Amino acid sequence: MYDVIVIGGGPAGLQAALTIGRMHRTVLLLDSEEYRNATVEHAHNLLTNDGRSPDELRRIARAELAAYDTVELRTGAVTAVGGALGRFEVATPEGVERAHRLVLATGMRDELPPVPGLAQQWGRRVAQCPFCHGHEFAGERIGILIDGEHAGMIERMLRPVVASAFIARPADVAAVTEVDGGLELRLHAGGAERVAGVFTAATSTQRAPFAAQLGCGILPSGGVEIDLLGRTTVPGVYAGGDMAHLAAVPGPMVSLAAAIASGQVAGASAVRDAIMA
Prior knowledge:
The chain is an alpha/beta fold. It contains six helices and 18 strands. Strands 1, 2, 3, 4, 5, 6 and 17 form a seven-stranded mixed beta sheet that branches. A hairpin with a 4-residue loop joins strand 12 (182-187) and strand 13. Helix 1 packs parallel to helix 2 and helix 1 (11-21) packs parallel to helix 6. The longest helix has 21 residues, at 256-276. It is elongated, with a radius of gyration of 20 Å.
């Protein structure tokens, strides 16, 4: 029986495990090795690690966790979860593990607009977060393939960074093709636009079914509902990272720094609530 089981080995889960381990609580981190940023070559907007690859960040984090005797890391996909506070059960191909509390950090899955060639560039020359990827297109022309008013907001955010922007609806673009130094956007109406990169809006859904299996509240944004301390609507279950949204500020965590911060909060809350019980 562990004090806490953390499901998910991205930045939020790794930070939650570190926070719990530093308080000498027994914690098992289960990592499926499926990551939202798997296609990203360099992570940005993370103090002291700007430009480091996500793979390297995870390697460093695991090495740091290995220094704590009460932290166990295990690679493998969780198949189901169940139970309640004090007696949660987490099923894996190797068997069932039990814990008093759970931290969910399984992330989100992105579905891009159905433009041929767009998904192949996701995380490289196609992104959605100006904070994480805007600077890399400084002084260049970019494309913004987003429906509605959100396109204008992204253009205004990037106006001081890029030279110019071509804005279109995803439905107006027939294909995205890689060319020397950038991308070519072929248009249904004819012609093409050459850009260094593209910003678009992905539709995000829960990567794993575990929050639903436990009965956690899900917000209209698709995120698991949490309070300011990372607690879900189910006692003993906490959530962090981009899968967890505040009801008052619905929307995903799109940066590593935000995911790490929410993982720290979730881990600390799991320890604090155990003490107060």
